[in-house]
Design a protein that fits this description.
This protein is an alpha/beta fold. Helices cover 38% and strands 12% of the residues. Helix 4 packs antiparallel against helix 13, helix 11 runs parallel beside helix 12 and helix 14 runs parallel beside helix 16. It is globular, with a radius of gyration of 23 Å. The structure holds ligand PSZ. Ligand PSZ binds next to helix 7.
């Protein structure tokens, strides 16, 4: 029923499509052939500026209940399709931000609607189990079919969790448990360990640390927040831990043109990492693990080379620290590989890889030795959600069936080339275009102009996100094709041309 309603509304909105009659100022890019994504709309269609009156009304209503400072507008998820998010005022926008990078194959993908319409799946949707104690019969099969089919090299174990923060938080605990057992030489805690931990004291609560990077984002829960260093407002007023923070390379783009300078910058950061590991060991707070994003996302889409990550991985190994790669934002295909760390070309890329967002369920893959040695050490009520595994298995089928990683590479190239062209055309406004696959970003001359551009492109029907101090980031779904790239580039070009 849901799907027939959607197709009727889809047909209606196509008839009402205003895009075809939109004024043209188009000289950046040519239209690419329309795509095979039949369930997609064929362009943005704007009826009001955003947020429109209905969104404003609802924001006021919700404001009586919650802080609504971050709400952009209210959505009509029934009418949203493919790459287009429809709002409650009937505006249809090309979504290049996808719910903070978390929609893998677009809105209302027919394959997912079909899955949800299957009566055999009803009980999975209705009965959310406490997975750690009472998993359903098909759980091992579903994990094998979904998450294990995309397990990173060297990892055959996975722990599901609810969200990204919850995954990282538990991954940190797994690293600490591993480290202490390694120190003890066995996994039997002493009586003193057991009594001291109850009052937050060593040796039961040891003074161990996790090394993170300036500009990194790993979540907002207490432990994760100690490793998050992207914006002060995230951390303000919350007590934190005395853990080491290393500089993340600040590279010059395009990377190919600055290989020597960038290699020097990376060497400087790596040296600092080793110094910090030694310093914290001397302080009596040894580094049990290093956590890093393959591309720092919230912090401004900061890249580092495969060489940097390979060296960092070796430093971790040399000093006996676990190596945790946070793929919450980079994982799931948008860099052109399923995991961004695959671009490093390593046989042993990490000890732990955490995920969420496009994977629909949170969790982390880990090497065998990071499996907690006793029950209830890594544990909570839900420990994930089997209905999300069901959806993920189908998302993975669609990714394979439609060769979406190849598509991402193709549309990513078109996107980055378009950004290079615009950057050459508007050197006073744009700089540092960068990206891998469709995981791209560009810097704007200042924060105010960045925000102005974000609002103007939105009013013209394109949703983008900011990151860092003055970057715009691109986080489309995996079904974002060259055709959509050109729709976007034309609109951005219009906005830039009008910019005073
Ligand atoms: O402001 C926020 O809380 C945001 S905006 C984008 C995110 C969070 N990203 C979440 C995220 C991430 O990008 C990385 C690399 N690691 C961990 C997280 C935390 O995931 P959630 O939000 O699911 O807890």
């Amino acid at each position: 029923m849901a799907s027939s309603l959607i197709s009727r509304q889809f047909a209606l909105s196509l008839q009402k499509n205003l895009w075809l009659s939109a004024p043209a100022c188009r000289y950046v890019s040519k239209a690419a052939p329309q795509t095979q994504v039949e369930f997609d709309y064929d362009g943005p269609s704007m009826k009001t500026s955003v947020p429109g009156p209905r969104s404003q009304e609802l924001t006021k209503q919700l404001g009586e209940i919650q802080n609504v400072g971050a709400v952009h507008f209210f959505c009509n998820y029934e009418e949203s399709r493919g790459n287009y998010l429809v709002d409650v005022d009937g505006n249809r926008m090309l979504d290049i931000y996808t719910q903070i990078s978390s929609i893998p194959i677009g809105y209302n993908h027919p394959a997912l609607l079909k899955l949800m319409a299957n009566p055999n799946n009803l009980s999975t949707l209705v009965n959310r189990p406490a997975l750690g104690i009472l998993p359903p019969e098909n759980f091992p099969d579903k994990l094998t079919e979904s998450l294990l089919s995309v397990a990173p090299t060297g990892m055959s174990r996975v722990q599901t969790m609810a969200c990204g923060s919850c995954s990282n938080e538990n991954a940190f605990k797994a690293m600490f448990i591993w480290y202490r057992n390694k120190e003890r030489g066995h996994n039997t805690p002493s009586d003193e360990d057991l009594s001291s931990c109850m009052i937050n004291q060593a040796p039961g609560c040891p003074d161990l640390s996790i090394l993170s990077f300036m500009g990194g984002f790993h979540g907002r829960t207490m432990g994760c927040l100690a490793t998050t260093h992207s914006k002060a407002i995230h951390k303000l007023d919350v007590p934190s831990l005395d853990w080491p923070i290393a500089p993340f390379p600040r590279l010059q783009y395009p990377l190919e043109e600055f290989t020597r300078e960038n290699a020097q910058e990376e060497a400087r950061c790596l040296e600092e990492v080793e110094d910090l590991i030694i310093k914290w060991r001397q302080k009596g707070k040894p580094v049990a693990g290093i956590v890093i994003e393959p591309i720092q996302a919230e912090g401004g889409d900061n890249h580092a080379s495969p060489d940097f990550f390979r060296s960092l991985r070796n430093i971790a190994r040399k000093h006996g620290c676990a190596f945790h790669v946070d793929e919450v934002q980079t994982g799931g295909g948008s860099t052109g590989k399923f995991w961004a760390h695959e671009h490093w070309g390593m046989d042993d890329p990490a000890d732990i890889v955490s995920f969420s967002k496009k994977l629909l369920t949170g969790g982390f893959f880990h090497k065998d030795e990071f499996q907690a040695d006793k029950p209830y050490r890594i544990f909570n009520t839900w420990m994930g959600d089997p209905s999300k595994n069901l959806l993920l298995a189908e998302v993975l089928n669609v990714i394979h069936r439609e060769n979406l990683l190849e598509e991402v590479t193709r549309s990513g190239k078109a996107l980055l080339n378009g950004l290079y062209e615009l950057q050459a055309q508007y050197p006073g406004i744009l700089s540092r275009a960068r990206g891998q696959g469709t995981f791209c970003a560009i810097d704007i001359c200042d924060d105010a102009t960045r925000n102005d551009i974000l609002l103007k492109t939105r009013d013209k029907g394109v949703l983008l996100g900011g990151c860092g101090d003055r970057s715009i980031r691109f986080r489309p779904a995996l079904i974002f094709k060259e055709y959509h790239v050109h729709i976007f580039l034309n609109i951005l070009n219009d906005v830039l041309a009008q910019h005073k």
